[in-house]
Design goal:
Length: about 140
């Protein structure tokens, strides 16, 4: 849920998810990518992300709300949003994921220890396709 605060320009991503689901949430990752400060229900088991560095944890308790107010008043929300965006760009952006897969596949395909085995030569016999349940009757001749 994107919340627009009473002051102009204050946007937050509010999530009912806890820290353990942070990296599995596409909406949370989109918030990080956009540089939108994210607020999760709690910060437990959020590794590799860290609460108060990449996102804020806040439940409905009075002390948690007061803590969030202090973070906002001290101007830390922008720093947390920026740190979250930088983490996303370094570890979770599709460009990073694609490069990681490309490097792994390239290394596997062209490493000196990889032995490429050729498949058996193709034969000229090709079976004709027939719809399921219909089998051609072999001709006797």
């Amino acid at each position: 849920m994107l919340w627009r605060g009473p002051s102009a320009g204050l946007n937050l991503f509010l999530s009912h998810c806890g820290g353990e689901l942070a990296c599995k949430s596409g909406a949370f990752m989109a918030a990080l990518a956009a540089g939108c400060p994210a607020v999760l229900r709690n910060g437990e088991n959020a590794a590799p992300l860290r609460e108060s560095e990449h996102f804020v944890a806040s439940d409905d308790s009075h002390s948690s709300v007061k803590r969030f107010e202090r973070i906002t008043e001290n101007g830390l929300l922008d720093r947390i949003a920026t740190t979250g965006r930088l983490w996303y760009e370094k570890y979770a952006d599709w460009k990073v994921i694609a490069r990681t897969y490309h490097e792994a596949i390239y290394q596997e395909a062209f490493s000196s220890n990889t032995r490429v085995e050729l498949a058996e030569p193709a034969t000229s016999v090709v079976k004709a396709w027939s719809p399921p349940g219909i089998h051609p009757t072999p001709s006797i001749g």
